[in-house]
Amino acid sequence: MRSLLFCVLCLPLLAHAAPTTPPADGKNLPLRTRLDKEAIRAAIAELPPENEAAPGRSETGALSGTAYEKFSKDFAGARLPDCLHAEGLKNQPTFFLGGVLALPFIAVAKVRGVCR
């Protein structure tokens, strides 16, 4: 009875076992067996040179913005937020408190004038 149970439990292992003979065509072989030194050298030779810039990309000024964008960002940041909205406490430190525990800081922010 134990041997029959052992055989039944081993069937899934045999079903998922790898085939012992490789396939006839080279396309279905694993990558490790398809790669050899000549294939690697050919792939490296086909790569574009690294010193050429990619077409359509500008490497200069990627992080810089125009003066108008900077002014717009500064102007939006200078506006006082409404006390009861999401950014109401962005200028008021609430220390480690958040959510309902930060409610008293809304009144403190209003008194300090960091929100409207």
Q: What is the beta-strand fraction? A: under 5%
Mean pLDDT: 77
Global outline: elongated
Question: What is the H/E order?
Answer: HHHHH
Q: Any idea what the radius of gyration is? A: 33 Å
Stretches with pLDDT under 50, minimum 5 residues: none
SS-derived structural category: mainly alpha
**Terminal CA distance:** 82 Å
What does this structure look like?
The chain has five helices and no strands. The model has no long low-confidence stretch (mean pLDDT 77). The longest helix has 14 residues, at 2-15. It has helices spanning 2-15, 31-34, 37-46, 67-78, 103-112. With 116 residues, it is mostly helical. The termini are far apart. It has a domain at 80-116. Helices cover 43% and strands 0% of the residues.
Brief account:
With 116 residues, this protein is an all-alpha fold. Helix content is 43%, strand content 0%. It has a domain at 80-116.
Keywords:
single chain; 116 residues; mainly alpha; 5 helices; elongated
Summarize the topology.
Blueprint lengths: L1 H14 L15 H4 L2 H10 L20 H12 L24 H10 L4
